Each structure stands twice: as structure tokens, then as C-alpha cells.
Amino acid sequence: MKKQDHFLSGYWLNRIAAHYNSDPFKTNPLKVLKAFFNYAGRAEQIKAFDDFCRAALKDSYSWQHGSPANALHYGEQLELLIEACFLVHQQADHFAPKQYNLVAVPATEFPMLLTSKEFSNPIAFLADFFEKRPLRRWKQWLHLFTTAALSNGSVGEEMEAAHIFIFIQYLKKLVYAASRLLALQEG
Fold it and tell me: Which helix (H) or strand (E) holds 86?
């Protein structure tokens, strides 16, 4: 990575830098992911994300989980997830196992949004995720969703429907891929 690219990437990793009070490139992204899933498991995170999206899509204020600060906090947690996954993607050689074998998805993992290939190799999904849109675009969309979840307006006023669909589908898959990546690293 060129020095300029490293600087620009670091600029977009501001949530990790602020949260961990350190250089984001020296932060262990697995530690960030572990903290995300220690707060709530994958199923709970998906439910929280669905609730977050519903609040952002409504034309009126509809956050149902305590104070608006909770929505803001959840948006920050999603930002940490995206940034940690970006770091894993940037350091894929370091986190990738030597060999991936396609495995059948166990029944305990359903519902599963990942393909068999993505389930077996979540780093491949991360490559697709950041190829689909760059880090700055994912973060921009997340901020639009967070603002909409806290306001009387809908994210539909700020984003095209196709982009809303991409954001929701890919973020859900990111939660699954990050969870699977942790399982593979720990197991």
C-alpha cells in the first residue's frame, strides 16, 4: 500500500482510532469484532440491525429501544464493525487460513445469508463487500441511516431505493461473515 493510500485509509478509520485511542492500523481487528459480538450474538445483532433499519425507513421518529442515544451508539458499533472488517480485508493474507474447504452449512447456522463459498471463506465475502462499494461509501450510507433513525425523516429521502437495498442486504451479510470469521479464527 502506498503511503498516500495508507493515510487516506487511516482517515476513514476514525471510529477505531477514537474508540481505541490508537493508530487503527495497529489495532487488532479481531479484538474489535470480538467486542461487537460479545455485546450481542449474531442473531441479536441481526434483529437490532433490522430494528435500526425500520426506524431509518419510517417518515417519523420511531426508535423504540430507549433513548435516541441508543440508536447513535448502535450506529457507532456498526461503524466499528465495518472498519474492523476493512482492516481484515486489507490484511487478508494475515487472517486467511492456509486452505479453505467448502463445507455444508450446519443447521444451527440457519438462517444463513452467506453462500457456501462465503461461509467457508468469509474473507472472500469481505473482498466482494469492499469491491461493491469503498469504505467511505459504506460509512456515508451508515451515517445517513443513523441520522434517519434519529429524525423525523426517512433515509429514502436521502438515498436511492437500490442503494438502500444494497446497504441492508450487504450489512446483514457482513454481520454473518464477521461472525463466521471469528469462529474460524478461534476454532
Answer: helix 68-90
